[in-house]
Amino acid sequence: MKKYLLKPPAAPAGGFRINYEAELNQQQLEVVLAGDGPMLVIAGAGSGKTRTLTYRVARLVECGVPMESVLLLTFTNKAAREMLRRVAGLLGTDLRILGGTFHHVANVVLRRYADRVGLKPNFTILDREDAADVMSDVLAGRAKLLNAKKFPKADVVLEIQSYAVNTETLPQRVLSERFPVLFEVAEEVLRAIQVYALRKREMNLVDFDDLLLLWRDLLRKHDDVRETAHQRWRYVLVDEYQDTNRIQSDIVEMIAGPEGNLMVVGDDAQSIYSFRGANFGNIIDFPKRFPSARMFKLEINYRSTPEILALANSSIRHNARQFEKVLQANRAHGPKPERVVCGDVSEQARYVVQRMMELRDESYEWRDMAVLYRAHWHSMEIQMELTQRGIPFQVRSGLRFFEQAHIKDVAAYMRIVVNSRDEFAWKRVAKLYPRIGNVAAEKIWKALEAQPDPLGAVSCDAVLAAVPKGAREGWKDLTRLLQKISTPEVRRAPSEMIREIIDGGYELYLQTTYANASARAEDVRRMADFALRFRDAQELLSELALTMSVAGQEAIEEREDTDVVILSTVHQAKGLEWRAVFGIWLVDGKVPDARALHESGGEEEERRLFYVMCTRAKDQLALVHPTIGDERGVMGVIQRPSRFITELDQGTFEEVRVGYEFDEEE
């Protein structure tokens, strides 16, 4: 076995251009000056991870390591370009270092060895939209499937295929565990995935997943290629290692070899992307795979006050599977985080917005504040309250809640019942059913428009004649649903109306149309809970229309750099920071998510998510939760505070009570 010396690279004859001791703290300096061999750098939140990586690359170059021998892998090409730009600035020279995403480097490698993996060097890379076009073509070739109610759209089939690849799970298992509604058509879905793979090879195409798989296969099956990569890239540095999947870790570990110069940087406490295929074992088990690896910890935090870090440390220590570390503040003291107990969800929204207005009076800009949450629907009441108060905001977790396609679809059903001459609602709903496109929807509307009562005439001969033959079964389903939701009793219960819509076929439509169907269905159910406070469907629709109208006017002017409050899921907020952060809906079942608790390691990943939420805050942190909420059509359901709040050490927060007070079961 080859040996190496654990010593810093030699200093250049003329001395170093950079004064590393002056530029870095002691923990960062130890990483930058470390010698050869495998290294695991656990970089806590706000600890200067990018700075450390940048100076490590610069140090290698100053010590005489050929630039071509360094490989820098990041999760965005932008991040790699920024790091290399900084290195070039530090060294005052142009760089010849290969850096970028795994996919970017895979493309470079596969162009050279295309024939080894059954490709021609001029292969085309499919983006997500292109891949969907290819899959749609595959499904079109199996036309009879498209008539089946339960057969999924191209995006859903691609999601099944991609998740299977990135988690190294059989597609059959992905179907049974994540898409059980597709059980009846499982064989055909699997066949479509196989045909998609064949079609790509025939046309010399690869998608993003292929880039990683083919690169790994190339290294596994061809010793000469693996040895060439090992000799070329003597120093491999990987950023955000906690977010890598098993394919990516296999690639870098094969290039580096068992005792090579592989430096992986990441934070196990911020591993929150298992739903995308990230493998927590990559980082947590790195010392097992590399017994000679040295571990370094970056624990000095430059972002948050000591009080915020004390709370974050108090939370994450409850995780058993972790590398223990304690974030230490490099800033002056500030106010303690607040645990804010509200009466109900409306109180929660009013409190957050009122507190924002107070901070605005204390010299904060809107852009200095963010509301973070576990799921997109958690922001619904906040969005409405901000809109009503005229406060500009930007939603980073997707479209504004009431502007999402699935919410507007459900509203369209309701609009038909409230106003049966609503042409656009009829057309929107009609096109949700198989074999009805723009032309057919227009013909159907013309037939409905000619009737004195379009809703009452939905199944008359004149209307049925306008419905394509292949769509008539679906039209019967629509007819039955409209009859149910148009009764006087249901019209006066908009929450029940929404539940009838989703149970009457709309959930099946979501499951066969969208890869994130479960999240969309949950949005609709929460819209039904929201509707409990309205007397009838017309009142609800009027409120939605007014909210969307104001939001639409604001969105015209909204830009990335404008002074707006940020609303975001925690997943989208990772890596970002704000002066003031409001975490909302912090009750059990929401944070942690109830479904995640049933998965292996689920509670610990949810606690990491809470930790990420808290460590986004620089100066102010408010952990807000309602005491009652509407659940599954029942008003006033008692909410348990999140276990992540109740397990915090006493003294790490101040308690604030807003609105009504209730006895809580702690």
Supply database-style keywords.
single chain; 666 residues; Rossmann fold; 4 domains; six-stranded parallel beta sheet; globular; disordered C terminus
Question: Can you walk me through this structure?
Answer:
- This protein is an alpha/beta fold.
- It folds into 4 domains: 20-108 and 211-298, P-loop containing nucleotide triphosphate hydrolases (Rossmann fold, 3-Layer(aba) Sandwich), CATH 3.40.50; 124-203; 306-392 and 563-658, P-loop containing nucleotide triphosphate hydrolases (Rossmann fold), CATH 3.40.50; 403-543, PCRA, domain 4.
- 49% of the residues lie in helices and 13% in strands.
- It has 30 helices and 19 strands.
- The strands form 5 sheets. A 7-stranded parallel sheet has the order 13-14-12-15-16-11-19. Strands 3-2-6-7-1-8 form a 6-stranded parallel sheet, sandwiched between helices.
- Strand 9, helix 16 (306-316) and strand 10 form a beta-alpha-beta unit.
Tally of individual helices? 30
Oligomer: single chain
Number of strands: 19
Briefly note the structural class of the backbone: alpha/beta
Query: In whole angstroms, how far apart are the ends?
Result: 57 Å
Rg, Å, rounded: 28 Å
Number of domain units? 4
Q: Provide the helix percentage.
A: 40-55%
What does the largest sheet look like?
7 strands, parallel
> What value does the average pLDDT take?
91
- Low-confidence residue ranges: 1-6, 550-559, 661-666
Spatial order of the strands in the main sheet?
A: 13-14-12-15-16-11-19
Please name the fourth-level CATH homologous superfamily of the largest domain: P-loop containing nucleotide triphosphate hydrolases
- The CATH architecture name of the largest domain reads 3-Layer(aba) Sandwich
CATH class of the largest domain: Alpha Beta
Classify the beta-strand content into a percent band: 5-15%
CATH topology of the largest domain: Rossmann fold
The global form is globular
